[in-house]
Amino acid sequence: MAQIVITDGYALINAVNESAACTGITVDYKAEIKDVTAYGATSHAKIGGMKDWSMKFEFNLDYASSANEGRFFALIGTSVAVEVRPTSGARGTSNPAYVGTGIVEGYQPVSGKVGDQAKASLSISCSNGVALQRLTA
């Protein structure tokens, strides 16, 4: 099994490649777990339910008028297309893309102590009832 170190992640948000300022990406994909245990059982029985996903991004911020801070601020509460890959290379079996449509639910335009670099986090979660796609082509 090949191991990689993520040094060249790919983050496409609302059709804008934000990778150059991105310093961290987390994709969370999960399913609800439903308890279907009936009387007489001696252990729980469970099944998978509805799926859900979210993504969290960390960015170096740029407050210039045409830079990422203004774009992110305008996205709060809106639905956007997102695509994340471990590297900026083409989609493939060793570089899958995680693609979905999500609502931008959180953004921190100012965060830090004196002397810190201006950074921000952006949170996006599933908004259209469609499970996260894993694409290799």
How would you describe the overall organization of this protein?
By secondary structure, this protein is mostly beta strands. The protein has a single domain, classed as Beta Barrel (Elongation Factor Tu (Ef-tu), domain 3). The chain contains one helix and eight strands; from the N terminus they run E-E-E-E-H-E-E-E-E. It has one helix at 68-75, and strands spanning 10-13, 16-17, 22-35, 46-60, 79-85, 97-107, 119-126, 133-135. Strands 1, 2, 3, 4, 5, 6, 7 and 8 form an eight-stranded antiparallel β-sheet that branches. Strand 1 and strand 2 (16-17) form a beta hairpin. The longest helix is centred in the middle third of the chain and has 8 residues, at 68-75. The two termini are 21 Å apart.
Question: What tags apply to this protein structure?
Answer:
single chain, 137 residues, mainly beta, Elongation Factor Tu (Ef-tu), domain 3, eight-stranded antiparallel sheet, 6% helix
Question: Remind me, CATH topology?
Answer: Elongation Factor Tu (Ef-tu), domain 3
| Topology as a string of helices (H) and strands (E) | EEEEHEEEE
Mean pLDDT comes to 94
Q: What class do helices, strands and sheet pairing give?
A: mainly beta
Radius of gyration: 18 Å
Q: Count helical runs.
A: 1
**Main sheet specs:** 8 strands, antiparallel
Proportion of helical residues: under 10%
How does the overall form come out from the CA principal axes? globular
Write a short abstract of this structure:
The chain has 137 residues and is mainly beta. Helix content is 6%, strand content 47%.
